[in-house]
Amino acid sequence: MQPVLEFNEVNKRFSAGGKAVQALDKVSFQVPPGTIFGLLGPNGAGKTTTVKAACGLVTPDSGSVTVGGCDILRQRNSALDQVAAVLEGNRNIYWRLTPRENLEFFAALRGRRPRAVKREIDDLLCLMDLAEKARTPARKLSRGMQQKLALAVALVSGAPVLLLDEPTLGLDVHTSLEIRNHLRRIAREEGRTVLVTTHDMHVVEDICAHVVIIDKGRVVANDSTQNLLRLFRFRSYDLTVGELAPDQCEALARIPHLHLEENNGSWQISLEVEDHALLWQVLDILRTRHTSIEAIRRRELNFEGVFMEILGRSET
Amino acid sequence: MRLGLALIAMIKKELITRSRYMANALGTLITLYLVFMLMFLGVQGLAGGAIMGDGLESLVVGYITWFVLLISYQAVPYTILSEAQQGTLEQLYTAPLSFGALAAFKLIAEILVDMVLAVLLLLFIIATTGTSLHLDIPSLLPLLLLVIIGGSGLGFLLGGAALLIKRVQPYLQIVQFAIIILVASPVKGVWRWLPVTLPAHWMRQVMVRGQGLSQVPLPDWLAMIGAPSSASPSALSCSGFANCGPANWGSSATSSTACDNGATAVNQMAFVVAHTCVNMYWED
To answer: Do A105 and B13 touch (CB under 8 A)?
Structure first.
């Protein structure tokens, strides 16, 4: 499937306070159409620079960014026709205009006539629960409503690719859930592609089909969310077992990434396994003297754990 | 079609915003009127009760010309500053239109609305001071347009600076008084090559002395339309401006795009200065 957004060896260096900062270091990834794609990383990792490069706000020093097959620098207007961005959440709208006026204004900038998009605007206002506030200046709306309006502004553009920088930042649980539902619907029903940057791992686990993790401007992971979770899910086990004989202790101590600790007559075995053969090896050692297994607990990593693990590895 | 829709949308937005904040517009009008009256009364006091010759009429025309110049030069840099502060500058920049065109549309929208203020101001001043002016609209419109083009040229240059250094506001406030020189300068020697000076002079001639456009000599037309006076800096600024991006806004670091913007603005200034020097040499 032809990617709808493609980064190819993109480099970007900023100078800040006399120091050069490599914001993007050979960043390459592809976003397939109709997916919700997560872009993660710690603060200052280069997420926002990546998003800004995707909508032509940052010019790469080298490499290329294409949207829908159009180079963002060489075919700027054609590329921008296919992309809409919400970069500063609720600040991306005119606070003196009402939601309807905002939507009409930004639709017109995309060449969409007010009459032609009237129905669409009505639907969007209903969808975002803004119909009752359609004539209220945006400055009088709650932050969540303003955020939803900013999302609606991106949607009314008709662009097939949406770039959302921290779309749920500072929102309450209910509104965050609503926005996530909207994003899921946009991807599923309208076939639009959504690139989301976020620090909220619940959002990633909940809606992102694929993630790219960036650290210090470099891509350190690029895989489907499920694969990354699967990769780390079965790695850690905690076993509580009965009395161990010295030869068993010796044999267990030889297993890599195994931590053994006596605790009031029983033993705690913590095991990180690269492959499951090691877990069977531990069980075999316990079986030699029919040691009782009191409990086995599989430590499951959520996406936050996966994220931390990947960042930890990139550090080393 | 897309450009037309964008222009209409920009004008509509301006009208909505201004009508929603009518008190601000009225405040501006009253302030400008009071400032003029203070000037008028002050000059009258100094002159011992009467202003000789066509001094009062020239003062009125000069003040209105300065106001038109002010609104046409402020539109672009103040738009950039306020949109950046608001967070909507990036939205405008990511629209599939050149940012130069959008800035020009914003300029047109603001000028259309502000011209209503200028006309009201003129009418109030005429009514209060009893001034008699020739309002020869067909002759005034092209001159007014040249004043606006000259002012907007400056505005685009300062807009480039606003993108580059962000904290350009104090300089804008200084410039708003410095541009009085453009309106009040004599039209001899190097002064005639200043942007707006000649159109402002001919506005005075039309409104105060009742002259028509047919009396404007060819060299003056050439100077007014030619590069150093007005049109060229604006056109150059517009074309260069389209390449400027707000990449340095909302980001902690300064990008090379921002440096490009700075270079564009500096290049434009250098070009205008160089062109003026060449023309002055040619004139001598």
So the answer is: yes
